[in-house]
Amino acid sequence: MIRMTLPAAVPEIPATDVDKAAAYYVNTLGFTLDWGDDQGGIAGISRGNCRLFITNRSFRKSYGNTGPVLFWLNLDNKAAVDELFAELKAAKAKIVAEPEDKPWKLREFMVADLDGNLIRVFYDFRGDT
User: What whole-number distance in Å separates Cα of residue 87 and Cα of residue 76?
Assistant: First the structure.
């Protein structure tokens, strides 16, 4: 049996206010607002191949999902991790942890958004020589 290939997941990020959360993702984290607003309860944002949905409490109410959440962004190399960190630090993102090579062979750092959701940016260097 041939298994279907799946696309990249699109995390749903809980927010108190979609407009304020989207503004932080756009102005500080470098995303683009593709559609939506707080009135509709959901917005789609993107940066390159990374897509996210931001939703408010009324949108999420019927599903019972709450936050905060943590999601991971897998970059292509250590230099990309350090470059993105420098960009986000200069933009005054809420830095939770600076880049570091972890014992589990990931170079990673972490930032937070306005609602306490966490973004863990990493590169898996196990295969590097």
Answer: 16
Sheet holding 42-47, edge to edge: 12-14, 50-55, 42-47, 32-37
Q: What percent of the chain has pLDDT over 70?
A: 99
Q: What is the pLDDT of residues 75-125, one digit of tens each?
A: 999 999 999 999 999 999 999 999 999 999 999 999 999 999 999 999 999
**Nearest alpha carbon to residue 128 among 83, 76, 74, 81:** 76
Token look-up 């390159």 returns: 48
CB-based burial label for 18 (10 Å; 0-12, 13-18, 19+): buried
Q: How many residues are present in the chain?
A: 129
**Residue 66 φ/ψ, nearest 5 degrees:** -130, 175
Amino acid at 86: A
Lowest-pLDDT range, 11-15, 101-105, 124-128? Answer: 124-128
Residue type, 58: S
Within the chain, strands assigned E span 12-14, 32-37, 42-47, 50-55, 70-74, 94-101, 106-112, 118-124
